[in-house]
Design brief:
4 copies of one chain form a homotetramer.
Chain A: H1 7-16, H2 21-44, H3 47-78, H4 82-86, H5 89-96, H6 99-103, H7 113-119, H8 123-127, H9 133-146, H10 148-173, H11 182-193, H12 206-222, H13 224-239, E1 243-244, E2 254-255
Antiparallel strand pairs in A: 1-2
């Protein structure tokens, strides 16, 4: 088991794992390259930059594609089961990182390639596993999972509200004030309920303005609901590595992580023979 | 009591109850039909769609009306007390789901029928009883009920603020800057206090802008109030606040959350060996 | 002490107190009249209504002034110390409720009288003492008082942020993009930081838009701060009638309202002779 | 050690410390002067004020510069190690407070001096040390430090969301609807996600409006996340989480908040009579 690792195994450690200095450095460099390639894509979309530096940026983009292609080849080479890797989520994302650069040879100005180039960003998550932030993210995800059902109830209620209000506004204000259809009314209701308030469509009639006031105050009040749900769940998740077990005497059901006795009544949480029988 | 149920009783179980597979399936199909009929209503309101597909959609709408009419007849037939059903809340909603389709024969373009057609959405709630989400909704409703009085106090305060600010702005800015009446001023104050900020009416004078800043900072600060109320109540509802346990000595039956001793007589609430025997 | 009360004393009970049915009814009628007078003021500000019904509304307004004048006279008459009442807060508010009606005879269209007429709204609070809502309002006020210092720290920080961002935007965007002075920049920063976003002044330069993004994300993040402060304090206030007293043995410092013994260690909170000596 | 302090030492106490009445008064006067100089800078930026009072304000500004110069000289004089002070953070800020007044002699209308003059505001923090508010600020800072990692996770997620949504909108809406580049799209996504909603760029196509609705509801929902994080941490910071007390038997020294018995060995943490003797 402790034989000298082959070159492929050593490469695997550097590329796929993060517990060696070399592996961490590899991930840091990769993170930098991904962010840079992203930046180039974003900057390239500015008309004046594109006009002046299109060819330079195309070369840079080519460089990134080459780097990613080499990385993809290496990952395939050193992976113990290359096919499994190739069809895994990250394997596909890695492949997608190369494709736009290659397609760009044939379709020079295909705007939809942009989306694919932006998908590269997903690769950041592979690299972020180095962070001590993951434990914190874990709390957040835990709290979100715990509040899933409550949030679905909330979203269904919001959808209902938004459909009702949107339809009412369509009937009240009508097409002459910008509410040209029910979907438009629903869009307006979402803009208003979430307190975004673009102002591209606004109520003009007194009745419409009264109804809007109702929508706004509703939105302002129920902004509390997801916050309340989430806060309560997060507090749970943070106390969270608590032991869930009913005390056989006092029925206290949450205990300290390593508790052997109930901190309220002092009885053994897991009594030995006596009560087991 | 366990005689073979008649056909009417079996129908009643399928249509009104949800604890059999057939009943659940019936509700799922109904939910789908309701959502589809809603979608058709919404899509039909788009001018370009209505122009091209008006007759097709009218036929589809006729189909839905037929389905709902059959369902209504079945409910009347298998209900043990049809009249009580017919005048119950859901009975009326079920009736309202049929009316617009029938009225549409005589009044071909009556826009107000839309509202009635939207009322069909209320029927979704009848179907949603299948969800395990209701226990979660229970927490939310509990928390809302607990915070009712505090929220009324809050809404009264907000109404007062909004009236005062709206009037002040009407006096300061005047009709030439869009504040044409006090109700308009109040509408503006609501738009601003709830941080929606459409931008259809904005202060132009320096004094008006200073007052607006005050309104915004107030709104931004008191956004905390309903959230705080709700969060505190939800946290209460989620853990069962107080410990219900009779003190073995003085019989006090409500104690602090983590109490080990009775706070009135000082005796252990869960004595160790002595009283177990 | 239990002699028959004089007419003045009986009137005093009805007008100033709320613990008799007559007193409660008096307050309810008064509340209605105040709200109606407010409604008339608001409706009167709509140009089209004012044009058509100005004289009618003036008569109605006269009626309200008469009612309030009679009420003021009665309060003065039945108050045991009329002067003290006249110069109390509510005495002055009651007087202000009459003045605009009288002044309106001489200055027919004085808009600033509006403000005085709106001040009548303050009288609602006198009447609201009937509500069981006051205990709830008490919690809110308690929580606000508890969080006062933290909120001042927060407001000072926000003012600093807003001044800095406003000045920066004034320098970056300049008068040609609507940022004509530092106060205007500060106004914009408040509009943005509070997530109101009117859109009357918006950044046009790339640097300005980057800075705005920073302002918005800051505002979006620190929206948490007053909420967090308030929620934590409200939870305190609601547990809140708790007994603050250090247990002489275990130093637990918050106990149930009527606690005689510590619920954690079971020791007397206020031991008799032994430890007093 | 308790010899009569020299004049320099006495000055040092007044200028640098706040525990004497004279020191406090000095700080209060300084705070007033700083705020006034700030006010003058802000007011001077208003075009109409600048036109009419430019020379008056220049004189006032000169006065402030003189006051700050004297103060700087005094601080240098009475500081035990003048060089260390001069290169400390506050030493540099104090120097920056004088420079703009002196430079203004040569460059009469240099707008960038504004920034330097605004930096004076930083000096406010030096004075604020008198406040009893610092203990409260301590809680806030504590809560912020505790939630640092979670907030970084949150900001990274928000940045990712905003980049993805911004790019999608750029592709969907295109330059003809105001989305002229990806950075512009990202700017729009930030404006929308934070619920600011200026309305300077708005989606026009149906697909764009559907995507915006998604962005808004996301923003509205995740507004909960920083609030939840912060509230949970603040609640932690405000009550001292765990009970510090040595168990008399097993010496475990950290226990659950309301623990009466040790959760490791089951012995009473605060035994009654037996061990008191």
């Amino acid at each position: 088991m402790s034989t000298t690792p082959s070159r492929r195994q050593r490469l695997h450690r550097i590329i796929f794992e993060t517990d060696t200095p070399a592996g961490r450095r590899f991930d840091q460099v990769l993170l930098l390259v991904i962010l840079l390639s992203l930046l180039v894509t974003i900057v390239d979309s500015i008309a004046s930059v594109h006009r002046d530096y299109a060819t330079h940026l195309a070369w840079v983009e080519w460089g990134f594609t080459a780097v990613f292609a080499v990385e993809y080849a290496l990952r395939l080479y050193c992976s113990p089961r290359p096919l499994k890797y190739a069809f895994s989520f990250y394997g596909l994302v890695d492949l997608l990182a190369i494709i736009p650069g290659i397609l760009a040879i044939y379709y020079s100005d295909a705007q939809y390639l942009l989306i694919v180039r932006i998908i590269r960003m997903l690769r950041i998550f592979r690299v972020l596993k180095l962070a001590p932030y993951l434990r914190q993210a874990h709390y957040l995800v835990e709290a979100l999972r715990g509040s899933k059902q409550k949030i679905i109830v909330f979203l269904v209620s919001v959808s209902t509200l938004v459909t009702v209000f949107g339809t009412l506004m369509y009937v009240i204000e009508g097409p002459e004030h910008g509410f040209t259809s029910i979907p438009k009314g629903i869009y307006w209701a979402i803009v208003t309920l979430t307190t975004v308030g673009f102002g591209d469509i606004v109520p003009k009639t007194p009745v419409g303005q009264m109804l809007s006031s109702l929508v706004m105050i509703t939105g302002y009040s129920i902004i509390a609901v997801p916050t309340g749900i989430f806060t309560a769940e997060l507090a749970n998740a943070m106390r969270g590595e608590q032991l869930r077990h009913d005390c056989p005497v006092c029925a206290k059901n949450l205990h300290e992580h390593g508790a052997a006795f109930c901190s309220r009544c002092g009885h053994a949480l897991f009594p030995k023979r006596d009560e087991q029988a």
